[in-house]
Amino acid sequence: MEAQVLNNFRKTGIAFIDDIPWGTHLCCFYETQDDLFDVVVPYLRAGLESNEYCMWIVSEPVSTFEAMNVLKKAIPDLKNYLPHLEILPHSEWYLKYGNFQGEKVMGEWINKVNHALVKGCEGLRITGCCTNLTNRPWKDFLDYEAMIEREIGKFNMIALCMYQLGKCGIHQILDIVNNHQFSFIKSKYDRKYTNNFFKFDRLNLLGKLAASIAHEIRNPMTSVKGFIQLLQNKDELKAYSDYFSLMIDELDRANGIITEYLSLAKEKENKENKVQKHNLNNILKALLPLLQADAIKEDKYVFLSLNDVEDILIDPKDIRQVVLNFCRNGLEAMEKGGVLEIQTYMEEDTVVLEIKDTGSGIPEEIISKLGMPFVTTKENGTGLGLFVSYRILENYKAKIDVKSSSAGTTFTICFPRPQSDF
């Protein structure tokens, strides 16, 4: 039985991390034992003070006795919270079945969530040093972390996994980061970082990795595509034309995915030098032939309905990227004969861009997550296109509203009118 997830936020106790919702999966890389305590102790204190059931799974060289003493020093009235606190050694939790079995451990966590709710707590807050688990078969351990990442959102549960940097290789660190919603480093030597913390943004990391290998990937892909196109034009191979077209489409799709990841790696360049007053209608008119070409191939239609609008402060390249992403998503969502309408108009002090499709709509449970990375309704999508578009619009302080039904979806984007001349 799944615990009911309350729609509220919890204090982390960690200096630079704001309140987080139930279902958050955090990861911290630390260097020394003091670094470990500096993160875990305030994290658990915040949980106990918020009526949460807290569990700390300790590993050598930290003992349960030492962990309890550290908490007593930090929380003078700890005895009042003891009914809601468990400190267990690594062997009694992760290895209670003789060896590490990820699915059973996940089942135990779920049991603890239900136990916490029965005791009158609002949910479960857990932390544990997982470094020793990295010595187990790596795939089994990654499957366990991926399972937590996948399932934790269903429960009143927050998890903070601790890893000692000196015991993790670079490939392990990358795998671990990729299986957590948020990761950071705590080190007393990292004094150049605010509060001695360094955020490990996995999206920027993925973008930088993509940037480092994109050239090596794209070159052979371009060669393969060129040879396929040559073969496609040979009369003796006409019978295989459909297969060649499919191969080219798949190469184009792979290239599109690389492009989406690359967009994560772009640093904010002196935007003030590129942001100037531009009219949204002019950008849309220039994009119309490209959008119509996309639509015609699928027997679909694109119409512009442009009213007079004031100029806004933007970088045209950013807006072209946003419009293309929203419009192409709309075109993909529609059957043959579908109509995509792009409209502009003024509404009080805002310039409004409206993109409306006649597709089958977006599931209600997805709408609230739009703009989050890796959220997509497409079978082969990454969800990064919308994420980047939302981030661009956020930089321009534009507001986004989404309305969707079985008759189609409308994205309404409101740009603030400049308050003064640029």
Report what the structure shows.
There is one protein chain. The protein is of the alpha/beta class. It folds into three domains: 9-200, Rossmann fold (3-Layer(aba) Sandwich), CATH 3.40.50; 206-267; 272-416, Histidine kinase-like ATPase, C-terminal domain (Heat Shock Protein 90, 2-Layer Sandwich). The protein has helices spanning 33-49, 64-74, 90-93, 102-118, 138-151, 170-178, 202-232, 241-265, 271-274, 280-297, 316-333, 364-367, 384-395; strands at 9-10, 20-21, 25-30, 53-58, 85-89, 124-129, 157-164, 182-186, 197-200, 276-278, 301-306, 312-314, 339-347, 350-356, 399-405, 408-416. The strands form four sheets. It has a seven-stranded mixed β-sheet with strand order 5-4-6-7-3-8-9. A five-stranded mixed β-sheet has the order 11-13-14-16-15. Strands 1-2 form a two-stranded antiparallel ribbon. α7 (202-232) runs antiparallel to α8 and α11 (316-333) packs antiparallel against α13.
